[in-house]
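Can't attach files on this board, so I'm pasting raw text. These are the components:
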Amino acid sequence: MDATEAAVPLVEMRGIRKSFPGVTACDGVDLRLDRGEVLALLGENGAGKSTLMNVLAGLYRPDDGEILIEGKPVEIRSPRDAAAHGVGMVHQNFMLVDTMTVAENVVLGMAGLPLVPDMAGVKRSVLELADKYGLRVDPDAYVWQLSVGEQQRVEILKQLYRKAEILVLDEPTAVLTPQESVELNAVVRRMKDEGKGAIFITHKMEEVMTFSDRVMVLRKGKVVVEKVTSATDPRDLARLMVGREVLFRVEKKPFEPGAVILELKDVCAQDDRGLPALRDLSLKVRAGEILGIAGVAGNGQRELSEVITGLRPVTSGGISINCVESTNKTPLEIIRSGVSHIPQDRIAVGAVGDMSVASNLAMKGYREAPISRGAVLLPRRILDLARRMIELFRIATPSPETRVKFLSGGNIQKTILAREIESCRSLLIAVYPSRGLDIGATEAVRKELVAQRDAGMAVLLVSEDIEELLSVADTVIVLFEGRAMGTFPSESADPEELGLLMAGVERKETAS
Amino acid sequence: MDLITSILAITLRAGTSLVYATVGETYTERAGILNLGLEGIMLMGAVSSFAVVYYSGSLVLALLTAVAVGGLLSLIHAFLTVTMRANQVVSGLAITLFGTGFASFLGQRLGPVSNGRYLVGLTGPRFAPIDAGALGRIPVLGALLNQDILTYGIYLLIPLAWFYLYRTRNGLWLRAVGENPRTADAMGVPVFRAKYLYTVLGGMLTALGGAHLSLAYTPGWSENITGGRGWIVIALVIFSMWNPARAITGALIFGGINAVQFRLQASGTNIPAGFLNMLPYIATIAVLVAITWWETLSKRVGAPASLGTSYMREDK
Amino acid sequence: MSILIEKRKNISRPAQVLVPAASFLASLVLTGVLLLAFGADPFATYRAMFRGAFGSGRAFTETLVKAIPLILTGLGVALAFKLRFWNIGAEGQLTLAGVAASWVAIFWGRWMPSFLLLPAVILVGCLAGAAWAGIPALLKTRLKVDETLVTLMLNYVAILFSEFLYYGPWRDPKGYGFPGTEPFPEAAWMPRIAGRAHLGLVFGLVLALILWFVINRTRWGFELKIIGASPQAARYQGIAVERNVVLAILLSGALCGLAGVGEVTGISRRLQQGLSLGYGYTAIIVAWMAQLNPLAVPFVAVLMAALLVGGDQVQMMMGLPASMGILMQGMILFPLLAGSLFTEYRIRRTGRHAAADAGGAE
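---
Top answer:
C-alpha cells for the assembled complex are below.
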C-alpha cells in the first residue's frame, strides 16, 4: 500500500454483524476513526451503538466482520486484548471496585504489573496524568467516597494510564453536571491534540455538536448516515435518528376524553443513586385518553411509573388518582384504587420467572373470589382463569403450568398484559410495552392498549418509539432529564420536533 | 506480673489454632466464598496429623498431611460452590458433617490394635515449647518466646498475610474478586482461579490450626478436640472485619477466655463460665450490625460484597 | 470449543426425585469403599445399620425419637429457605425453646393447674423459638444484616445460656453434681405414644400437612412463594415483603422451638446437657434433601434418624465407630449439591463465540 501514515485510520471496523437471540443488533456496520478525531455514534436505544462498541472493547465477539487497528487486522477476544491494542472503554456502569482506592483501581488487572507494585510510583504517575489532562482526583481516595463525575474521571485516568489510544465513552455525560461536561470536553480536546481518537456513544444532540468532529447515525443496527459534524443540521440528525416510516396504523375511536383520572402536580422524585429524576413534573390523564411519554430511556420514565404506583417516594408535589389524594400511598392501596402497571423490567418485576404462567396470571386476582375463598386459594379456578386468558390473549405456552422464564419475551409480555388488563379498573400504566418484541407481538400489545382506551380507561404509555407514540397515543409529552419539554396532540405533532426535544434541544433554539 | 505473663502464654497457646484458621477463612471470604466447613476441616487436620506423627514420628510429615487433607476438603467446597454453583451454606455444613464424622471414625479405626484401634489416649512426638533461656524469663516477652514453633509461625503469618492482601498485586486481585467479581473479571483478573486458590489455601491453614491442637496444644487426639473452634473462627473473621492483621485481637480474646477458664478450673473454682463465654458471640453480632449499619451510610468496611453468592459470567 | 453451563429450558421433574435418591445411593457406595478400605464388610455393616434402625419395634421407635426433632426443625428450615432466608439457627431456636419450656415446667408448675401446664410449656417454648428467630429476621429486614452469620452466632449464645443455667442457678441440688435441672413435674411431660416416641411425632406429621397446605393452597403461601422467587416482583404486586418475611421466620422459629419442647418434655423430662445433638444442623440437610417440600420432610427425617440410630447399633454389634452415621449424612450432600446443578442447568459444549457473548443487545 502506498498510503501515507496519516491516511491509515486509527481504527477500522468492517462489516460488523452481531445478533442475539431474536435481535440483530449490528447488521454489517462499517466504522472509521482517524487519529486526532472524535466520532459521535448517535442513535436511539437498541440502535446497536453499545453492541458495536462492546465488540471493539472485547466484551462481545462479532458474528462476522473484521477490525483493523492502524491498518493491521486484529483479533480482540477480551478486554485485555483490547487494552493491548490501545482500546479503552468507559462503560455506563463504571468498572470500579468501591472499596479500593483510586490508584488501586487504576492498576487492577493490568497486564505486566509486578507482584509487589510500587504504589507510590503509581500514585505519582496518576497525579501527573491528572495534572496533564485536568482530571483532578486524589489517588488515595476510596472510590465510594467519590461523586459520579469523579468516578468517571477515574475511569478515564485508568484508560490513559494504560496508554489507550482509542477511548470509547458510553453516554459519558448522562451522569455529569453541566460543569463536569465542559471539563470532559477539555480532556477529550487534549487527547485529540496528542493524536489519540475518541468515540462517543450518545443520544444527545447537544453533545454531538459540541464534542464531535464527525457523526455517525445508527438505526436498527445499520448506519443511516455519516457526516462531518459541522456540515450537519440537528434537525436532519434527529429525523434520521428516530426515522419516520410507519409500520401500521391502529384503528381507534375518535378521541373523546372524559374525567381526569390521574393528575400529577409539580412532582419531584429521586433515582436509586439519590439524584433528582423527576423535576416539578405535572401532567393529567383523562378517561378514554392515551397519554404518551416520549423520551430517551433514563430521563425519568421509570421513576415516573414508580411514583404513581407507590413503589418510589415522591419528595415533593402531589398525585391524585380518581380525584383521591394518592401521594406516597402503598403499592397495595394504589392497586386497590384500580391502577394496573406493566413495568419496564418484565423478567424481574413484572413476572416471576420461576413460577408458572397460571400463577403469574393470578398474581393480581388471587386476593379475591373467584380465585380465593377467604384465605384459601382454589387451584382449579386459577387454572380455569389461566386457560381463559391464554386463549384470549393468544399466549403461546406449552401449558399453564410452564414456568414463565421458559416463554419468549413476547409471550412473557402478553402474560403480564393479560393480568394487568384483566385487573385494570381505571388507569393502565405501560412502560416500554413493546420493547424488544417482534412485529406481531408489538401489534397485539398496541391493539390492547387502544382497546383499553376505547373502553374508557386512562392509559399512560411510556415509549421511546416516536412512531408508536404518534400512532397509538392521543397526547404526547416529551420527558427530558425529568422535566416535561412540551405537550402535543399526537395528530399535529411533528416527529422531528419531538426528536429534537428528546435530544434536549429546546424549541426556541431551532426556531430560526 | 507473673500472672499476666502466664495468662498471656496460655492465651497465645490457645489462640494459635484460631489464628491459623481465621487468617485462612479471611482469605476464603475475601474471595467471596463462605466456608462453614471449618469445624470439619480442623478436626480432620487434627486427627490426620496425629495419626501420622504417631506412626512415623515425623512432625513435618504430620503437618504436610494436615495441609493436604485441609486442601482436599476445601477443594470439594470450591468445586461444589464455584463450579457447580451449589449453596455455600449447605455445602459448608456438608463439609463439617462429613469432616466431623470421618475424623471421629478415623479416631476409632486408625489406632493400634493394642488400644482397641483407638487413637484416644495415645501420645506421640509433639511440638514442645521452645526454651528461650534468659530471654524467656523476661516478663511478658517470655510469654511470647516460650512457645512452640507453630505459635512462632503466627508471628510470621499475620504480617505476611496482611502484606500480601494489601500490598501485592495478587492481594489487590483477591480483594477485587470478593468485592466485585464482575468488575474484576472485566479487568482481566482470573476470578475463578482466585476463588479456587483461596478456598483451598483457607482450608490448608484451617487444617494447620487443627494440627496445632493435636500436635502441640492438647496434645494427642480426643473426640471433639476442637470444642467448636471452627465455628468460633467464623465469628472471629467478622470480629476482625476481614483484615488478617486484626485476626490476632479476636483470637486473643477467645483464647484469653479459654485461658482464664483454664486457670479457674486448675485452681479448683468451678464457676459457671457460660455467661462469660456468651459475650464474644453477642459482641460479634453487635460488630456485624454496626458494620452493616455503617455501610448503609457509607461504604467503608465490612464483608466482601459478593460473599455467599456464586458468580456466573453469563449473568446480566 | 468450550463448555457452557446454561439454564435448562425446563426444570427436569424426574431429576428432582432421582437426584436425591441417587445421592443416597452414591453415599452408600462411597461409604462402602471406605469401609472396605478399613477392612470391614460394607454389606454386613449396612444390614446391621438397617436392623439397628428398623429391625425391631424398639429400634424403630428409637429411630422415630430421633426423627421427631428432625421433622420439626426440617419443616422450620424448609420454610425459611423457601424465602431464601438462610436460617442456620435451628439449633439455637431449639435450645432456647427448651430453656423456656423448662422454665415454665419447673417454676409455673407450682401454681398452675396441672392440666394447663403442658399447653403453657408448649406455647412458651414455641414463642421463645419464634423470638430467637425474630432477632435475625428483624435485623435482616430492618438493617439488612446478614442472617446466616447472626443465626449461627445466636446458636452459641443459646447453647451457652442453657449451660449457664443447668450448671448454675437451675442445677438440681439433689443431682449429685450432675449438670441438669431437677426433673419436671409429671403434668409437664409430653405423652409418649410408643416406646420413647412421644406426641411430638403427631405434631410433626400434622404440621407437615398444614405447612404444605399453607404454602401451596393459601393466599399467604402464594405471597411467600412470590417473595421467595423475587422480592422485587412481590413489592410490585403490593405485597408487604418485610412484614411477611418476619412473620414466616417467626413461624419457622416456632417450629424449631417445638422440637426443643419435645426434647425436654418428651425425652429427658428435664433440661440437661446434650439437649440437641446437632439436630438444627442436620435439619438443613433434611430440608435440602426434601427439596424444601414439607411433605417430603418426614420421610427424609426418618432416613437421617435411621443413619444416626443405625450408626449406634453398628458400634455395638460390629465395633465400628458410631460416627459413621454422621459421616454418611455429610456424604449424601456432596452428590446432592453437585447434582442439583443438573436439575436447573445443563452442560453444553459450544464454540468460543457463544461463551463470550453475554446477554442481549445493548
